[in-house]
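Lab manual, section 2.4: Encoding a predicted structure.

Procedure: take the sequence of the chain (259 residues), apply the prediction step described in section 2.3, and record the output as structure tokens. A sample record is shown.
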Amino acid sequence: MNIYRVLNNNNGEISFGVITDKFYPFKEDPFLLFSEGKLSESCVSSKGLSLDQLKILSPSEPTKVVAIGLNYKGHAKEMKKELPEEPQIFLKPATAVVGHGDYIILPSSSKRVDYEGELAFVIGKRCKNVSVNNAGQYILGYTCLNDVTARDLQAKDVQYTRAKGFDTFCPIGPCIATQVNPLSLNLTTILNGEVVQKTNTSDMIFNIFQLLSFISNVMTLLEGDVVTTGTPAGIGPLKSGDEIEVEIEGIGKLTNFVR
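Recorded output:
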């Protein structure tokens, strides 16, 4: 099931829902049915709207986004770095989060802003000190994320906070997919119609469950928090007027524009 968080343009209400092609194939696509209470197929109502009456928002409102540096073998080779012994974690602020269709705003203080297409997962319930074997039960589902980075400021500061933390530097979406296998998903990043990143999540150094266990032994993760799992080889710069897309098998395509 792919869960969307949307703004109703008619009344300003924010709701969760699912695309109806699985439930009501006789309706014209695209169409979204709203959920009632808990997000499950049994809670999907008969009330819905066509997507042209809705704005797709980021699929959750995290208190924090925990990100992983250097977690693909191909990216480590590209950066000419040794494979890390432990996950390298950093934080992106919640104020950096935007949704599908939103703009990435280039800051005047940076001359080089890069895209980084990534698989992310959304925490389903509060967790702390989780084992690798039990990690899956704390994950609500999976989504696409673009870990936008001011590359020149990252090199200048050494620390990641400024380079990764500008407003609009964390597009997430378009939905949360609850029924995909995160250990083997095709990931593609597309810049102005050209494929610039292409990999499979099996190339990760630390898999989803290892990452959740490691992070939860450092900090408490809350419902709705997002963990993004690192980018593959092929990172590159963005410029004003660009369209950048992160597409992941079974989840969909996160599209953003640059100005």
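Check your result against the sample. Helices lie at 73-78, 151-157, 161-165, 208-216.
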